[in-house]
Write a structure and sequence with these properties.
Chain lengths: 550, 191
């Protein structure tokens, strides 16, 4: 196989952008993706099998068969878990990664989110840190993501966001019924509601049409291609340069290194299960936080006996996502309007600034609910089965609202990904083993957030409410997974430098949510995209033929 | 009450389902109690994928306690036994033993308390048996509860929620979007 300049592992949010930026700059690129490339034809709206409700499995990978992980519970017991089970903490495995089926909320982090330690101090037992870069470093690249991938919204009603050079390229979708109910209620409480920014066409953009507002959005692919992900933006344009080749159903096994400790390419299993080698000048790992850490740990050699980039035992640590909490409200009037995507209104009043709390998170109304989501979300005291349950489904499916949000997790070094010593996947590779938890302060913040959500719902007229706030015995990482290859200046406490370059291997990069030092009180994907643009920009600037300027 | 249209279509698609009935039965039955319903519904000759005929009958009784008939069909009438039977050969293969034991236990509860099987039990006895099963084998009962509700409220393509009957019950239009073909929701790979 022809040697190329760059191999990119994973065609998701970050990998797609990196491939496109490198290919556009003239580098030859091979983009390897373990999953398939789905088309509009594969876009079945199946309530039981999608990327959010996995009763019958994940629609966009990975399959339950042959792809286990291990989860170590709070008693220290190791459990084998499947991709359709919550403890697996799945995102997706397909061209587009999570962006094919995501909800498409497009949040920028706030300036404070990059300086959590200096803003609040690190709670004891946590690994709370500042980023080596700040909001201002990322601002041009947030802007680029908003315009190139395509974001609709209007942030003028949100006084809390960081400075931005211009508004969003598309107006928000017209408000749905929940927006109409929640907006005046928030204002009465003195809050600052505004439409959620979304990676979704509200008007024709980038050669594709606008959202037709269907019932099946988050967790599903969009058959009118109005949801903007890497699969319908940067990946096609990377391929159009002629410099990038996408190989699907190719599972990367390890990063190969030479005797001097530099990467020389990767080995992978192709779609027929044959082991292949692809040699390259640089390797970019964009496999999503859990699998990126696993790939580095699985890349062992004489010089890197504990895995590539893992000299100081940092790879896989600080695993984080978001601790979702909120409240459910039950109303004596219809709140449901069958207009997707459903999530429409948010407040950022509670992301920062509450005395005694290290941060907080946004609060927003939930995406449109399918009947399957209402089964266990009925008023307290409702019978769990029988005639009473069926009646309650009729009574409340169209008369509930949920307000919730991603509480920023306080990370710990013990919340981590390692390799399981016993369990292997279908290719014979040791699987990811997830253990530890977030810092307990996270749950305290989450409880405060839940009561705030409840107050908003009550003001909006809820006749009954119930809180959604638990203390999970697992790092909730899943779709928002991040942190496992932390960015930092000190090689003893991080895996990559500010340009996402592995500290002791200058031609290996980790570019995805793995590098997040902290994960903000916001859904992460726009930040992942901004980092991909930022790191690609540095990579291209430093690139000279087959190596780097020193 | 379901419209006549849905009922007719349901009947056309019906096969090997204990709850499958003709349109005439359906109209008549809607005036009857759920007990009468279930009693008339357990004698299809079927080739189930995973269950024996007897197991399917027992399962239908339990599913119908979880989602009984009222103005809208019960679980088995909406195809939930088909849903569970199919998945026991697919995604829920790992639960086959649990079903084999759990269904046997349901019958033995009925035999012990009432002196006959669930097929002969009255409506009240069936409900009592389900409550007893919930107490004696909570793990299995929770499993059937989960699978029944999924089948009833999930996508029609998997055999349950036949003709999107639960979605109609909730006032959800189906097909929901102009221009979207019905079979987008009812056909396709059965995972
Ligand atoms: C249902 C759903 C809803 C979501 N909603 C939102 C939202 O509203 N807002 C938001 O900000 N975020 C949302 N997310 C999360 C968002 O999609 C992720 O944050 C984002 O996709 C992560 O980007 P990434 O580049 O790190 O990884 P991914 O996008 O997951 O891409 C990684 C890719 O690498 C591939 N890969 C992994 N290992 C290998 C290997 N060894 N060899 C080859 N390929 C490999 C995977 O198959 C995958 O395609 C949602 C996700 C889901 C699933
Ligand atoms: S709600 Fe809009 S963006 Fe989402 S899947 Fe439907 S049409 Fe596509």
């Amino acid at each position: 196989m022809k040697r190329v300049n760059a191999v990119v592992v994973g065609a998701g949010a970050a990998g797609g952008i990196v491939a496109r930026e490198l290919a556009t700059a003239g580098l030859s690129v091979v983009l390897l993706e373990r999953g398939k490339w789905y088309t509009a034809n594969d876009c079945r709206k199946d309530d039981l099998r999608n990327q959010r409700t996995t009763v019958l499995g994940n629609a966009f990978g990975p399959e339950d068969e042959g792809n286990p992980r291990v989860w170590v519970d709070s008693r220290g017991e190791a459990n084998v878990v499947l991709p359709s089970e919550g403890a697996y903490q799945n995102n997706a495995a397909c061209v587009g990664g999570g962006t094919l089926s995501y909800g498409a909320m497009a949040w920028r982090f706030m300036p404070q989110d990059f300086r959590m330690r200096s803003t609040y101090g690190a709670p004891q037992g946590s690994s709370l840190e500042d980023w080596p870069i700040g909001y201002d470093d990322l601002e041009p690249f947030y802007d680029k993501a908003e315009y190139e991938i395509g974001v609709s919204g209007d942030e003028s009603g949100n006084p809390f966001h960081g400075p931005r050079r211009r508004g969003l390229p598309m107006p928000p979708l017209p408000p749905n019924r929940e927006f109409g109910i929640l907006e005046p209620a928030a204002k009465r409480l003195g809050l600052h509601p505004f439409p959620i920014p979304m990676l979704r066409n509200s008007v024709p953009y980038n050669g594709r049409g606008e959202c037709m507002r269907c019932r099946w959005c988050v967790g599903f692919a969009c058959e009118v291609d109005a949801k903007n992900g890497s699969q319908n933006t940067v990946i096609p344009s990377a391929l159009a340069t002629g410099n990038c080749e996408l190989r699907t159903q190719c599972m990367v096994r390890e990063i190969l290194t030479d005797e001097r400790g530099r990467a020389r390419g990767v080995s992978y299993f192709d779609e027929k299960g044959r082991l292949q080698e692809q040699l390259s000048d640089i390797v970019v790992v964009s496999a999503c936080a859990i699998e990126s850490a696993r790939l580095l740990l699985n890349s062992k050699s004489r010089l890197f006996p504990d895995g590539l980039g893992n000299r100081y035992d940092q790879v896989g640590r600080n695993l984080q996502g978001h601790h979702y909490t909120g409240a459910m409200g039950f109303f004596d009037f219809e709140t449901y309007d069958d207009v997707g995507p459903g999530a429409s209104i948010a407040i950022s009043d509670y992301n920062h600034g509450t005395p005694g709390l290290c941060g907080g998170g946004l609060l927003a109304n939930e995406f449109i609910r399918l009947p399957i989501h209402t089964l266990d979300r009925l008023p307290p005291g409702t019978p769990r089965w029988g005639a009473g349950h069926k009646r309650a489904m009729r009574e409340f499916h169209r008369r509930t609202m949920i307000v919730m949000g991603p509480t920023q997790q306080i990370p710990t070094a013990d919340g981590r990904v390692t390799l399981d010593p016993a369990v292997e996947d279908q290719w014979g590779l040791p699987v990811a083993r997830l253990s530890g938890n977030s810092h307990p302060h996270t749950f305290e913040i989450g409880e405060v957030q839940a009561r705030r959500a409840e107050a908003w719902l009550k003001e909006a007229g809820a006749v009954e409410t119930s809180l959604m706030a638990g203390r999970p015995e697992i790092v909730s990482s899943g779709q928002h997974q991040a942190g496992t290859c932390r960015m930092g200046d000190d090689p003893h406490g991080s895996v990559v430098n500010r340009n996402c370059q592995v500290h002791d291997v200058d031609n290996v990069f980790v570019i995805d949510g793995s590098v997040h030092v902290t994960n903000g009180g916001f859904n992460p994907v726009l930040t992942i995209m901004a980092i991909a643009y930022f790191a690609s920009d540095a990579l291209v600037r430093n690139w000279k033929g087959t190596g780097f300027r020193s | 009450m379901c419209g006549a249209g849905p009922a007719r279509r349901a009947q056309m698609k019906a096969r090997k389902e204990p709850g499958a009935v003709t349109r005439r039965q359906f109209m008549a039955a809607s005036a009857m109690s759920s007990a009468a319903w279930a009693a008339g519904c357990t004698s299809q000759s079927g080739d189930w994928e995973s269950l024996s005929e007897d197991q399917a009958g027992t399962l239908a009784v339990i599913c119908d306690q979880i989602v009984p008939a009222d103005d809208f069909p019960s679980a088995s009438q909406a195809g939930v036994v088909t849903y569970i039977d199919r998945q026991l050969s697919r995604h829920y293969r790992r639960h086959r033993m649990a079903y084999a034991h759990g269904l046997e236990q349901a019958e033995s509860i009925s035999a012990k308390r009432f002196g006959h099987g669930l097929a002969q039990a009255t409506a009240e006895q069936r409900l009592q048996a389900a409550r007893a099963l919930e107490q004696e084998n909570r793990t299995f009962f929770e499993l059937v509860r989960k699978h029944t509700l999924e089948g009833y409220y999930g996508s029609p393509r998997h055999g349950g929620n036949r003709d999107a009957v639960s979605w109609r019950m909730l006032g959800l239009a189906e097909p929901p979007v102009r221009g979207r073909a019905r079979d987008v929701f009812s056909k396709g790979t059965r995972s």
